[in-house]
Amino acid sequence: MSAEPFWKTKTLENMSRDEWESLCDGCGRCCLNKLEDDDTGRFLYTRAACKLLDLKTCRCTDYPNRAARVPDCVTLTPEVIDGLGWLPESCAYRLLDEGKSLPWWHPLVSGRVETVKEAGISVAEIAYSEEGIAIDDLVDHLWKLPKAKRKAS
Description:
Layout: H1 6-9, H2 17-22, E1 32-36, E2 43-49, H3 66-69, H4 92-97, H5 107-110, H6 114-118, E3 128-129
Parallel strand pairs: 2-3
Antiparallel strand pairs: 1-2
């Protein structure tokens, strides 16, 4: 009988650094610029991504120094997850914080990083760099995040 995976037995606060980092599915959604609707409080995503996001791999090109290079970059910790209403609904950190399970396409579940793209969750080759886009023009780049595709049989 195999043991339960760590994300089912540990709280976010009790995970090791490696376990914590492995929760990131590499979708790149959190690196998209977002706007908050003043009337509803909802967060609206754009296709304009942080200048440090590698648009093919959806990984940060300078992860260790990201907070210094991008002042509004938020370092995710167990203590701040609950207050980040802009985290995508598909985000593993958000899901686990809300007591939900990881989806079929998450690499920790599927065993393959490719399932993030196969499920339509990745912004790879969909997003583009924010460079050259004025903050006031971000509204012209709004994009509705697609829901995950169903698991292929």
